Amino acid sequence: MVLEKTFGSKLFDVLLVVFLGGTALLCVLPLWYTLSVSLSENAAASAGRVGLWPVGFNLSAYQEIMGDSKFFNSFWISIQRVALGASLNFVIILLLGYPLSKNAAVLPFRNVFMWILVFTMLFNGGLIPWYQTIKSLGLINNIWALVLGHSVPVFSVILVINYFRNLPKELEEAALVDGAGPWQMLINIFMPVAVPVLATVTLFSIVYHWNEFFNGLVLMSNADMYPLQTYIQQLVVIIDAQTMTAEQIQKMSELSNQTLNAAKIFIAMMPVLVIYPFLQRFFISGITLGSVKE
Amino acid sequence: MTCNMKTRGYAKHYYLMLLPGFIWLTLFSIVPMFGIVIAFQDFNPGLGMLRSEWIGLENFKYMFTLNDSKSIFFNTIFIAVMKIVANLIVPLVFALLLNELRISVLKRWIQTIVYLPHFLSWVILSGILLDIFSFNGPINAVLSMFGVSPTLFFARADLFPFIIVGSDVWKEFGFNTIIYLAALTGINPSLYEAAAIDGASRLQRLRSITLPGIMTTIILLSVLSLGNVLNAGFEQIFNLYNPLVYSTGDIIDTWVYRTGLLNLQYGLATAMGLLKSVISFVLIAASYFLAAKFANYRIF
């Protein structure tokens, strides 16, 4: 790359660094602010005196959470949901992705299956029929409603299909010569090769199941079954009050325990922050690899 | 071809592999599709779909007499279209600027940071936003330094759609740069070198090399976003709105939720949901068709 040395160009470079750095900062400042509020005195927080540094540093909000059984109950439900949901998604995505990566000569009606899959991604019956179906399956207040509720992650299946389709044909031929059956082929040959894309879709599953709150809200009628995001949603968000005035809303937010809520929010985003470095490493390559087609 | 011959007997195993996924798909995606009959019924959950009274298009007729429906359609399209435009342009500009950055360590750090909000839930981000935009919050504090008197942002129906679009761009712009950045790395660097030798300025290179190089990507993303015209973002609005901003912030999805699951008007809510599903499906199918025809795009 040839570098210019004009003054204008150098000035542009400096402004560029300032602007891009500033924008990036804007993405994390709100998260930092929440941490700062969670570590402050509640009085200072509700008076709006907390900025980017805690006022009256203390850990009492976190100590209070330690003794909050409802919070931990929801946390545990979320953990179970992620464990069950991510494992089930992994198996189903692999079992759908592998055969559907074969062509129609090997798998008759392959295209019919593909169209059904894509159709369910593009069209749905809407909220009420979906809710009624899950209700008639008897899954209300059952953790399996959270695990199964959103059906097959079709987009992830398509990523895996495209990944398998781009693998060299020699891979399968060599395994056939060695006498591998269809299941050995999948588990011993194709699964290990697909680690990048499988890691990507699994991380997507984990983030989805951790972040999802709406199924928890409508499918769990018992608050003891709420996953963590639904629990937080109930705490933080202004609950439906048709008659509330602006002053009442303001008063309610002042009365609520801001530091405690901030601490709960911060703990709820911790798992995502912890897996983010891994997520980061995989998702770009996973997305670009899976979306390139022959 | 020899490969196909040898694996032909594998078909039954392949069907076995597909079985669990398609059972799941049937129970939770396909069965609910038949539930759209509720839209044509005076649905009574006690009687179920088979025995509830059929009333033809009554639910749809009633829906169009409601004042609500006009405003929720307007709000949905207004917010969704603003989001589509902003989410195409802001990431493009950011990607182009990031592409000009020559310090690669800094570039990687900035990318890592701006992708982060995409992975946080709207529940978490709404909790944070409601706090930041509260009466005593930091936004009002900063504005008051410029002599603007504090306001209750989330009680202001006039500002609500713009706060929604702004916060959505804030959450997603970083993640949306990925595709543009991938397209930018596909441009042959020797083009830039040749242009620099010819004395082309940065702006000239942007106009004659960079933009033409990623034009296909820009067009493709624009066409595919057509399918989102009725998607204003349920999770975000559901967590940020309140009755004071219903006039500008209530969208189809939030209305369906309240009408169907809180007020138990099943038929009416299903009718509205069905209308949305059908229109969205037509738009998405059209966008895929256009993308396949003009940009040679295939989803599988």
Report on this structure:
The complex is a heterodimer of chains A (294) and B (300). By secondary structure, chain A is an all-alpha fold. In chain A, 72% of the residues lie in helices and 0% in strands. In chain A, helix 3 packs across helix 15, helix 4 runs parallel beside helix 8 and helix 13 crosses helix 15. The longest helix of chain A has 34 residues. The mean pLDDT of chain A is 87. Chain B is mainly α. Chain B has a single domain, classed as MetI-like fold, CATH 1.10.3720.10. The longest helix of chain B has 34 residues. The chains are: A mainly alpha (294), B mainly alpha (300). At the A-B interface, helix 1, helix 4, helix 5, helix 6 and helix 8 of A face helix 1, helix 2, helix 5, helix 6 and helix 7 of B. Chain A: It is a multi-pass membrane protein. Chain A: Keywords: Cell membrane, Membrane, Transmembrane, Transmembrane helix, Transport. Chain A: It comes from Paenibacillus oryzae.
Which overall shape of chain A is indicated by the principal axes computed on the Cα atoms?
globular
Order of helices and strands of chain A: HHHHHHHHHHHHHHH
Largest sheet of chain A: none
Distance between the termini of chain A: 32 Å
By secondary-structure content and strand pairing, the structural class of chain A works out as mainly alpha
CATH superfamily of the largest domain in chain A: MetI-like
Please report the first level of CATH classification, the CATH class of chain B. Mainly Alpha
**Strand order of the main beta sheet of chain B, please?**
1-2
Question: How would you classify the helix and strand content of chain B by structural class?
Answer: mainly alpha
Strand content of chain A: under 5%
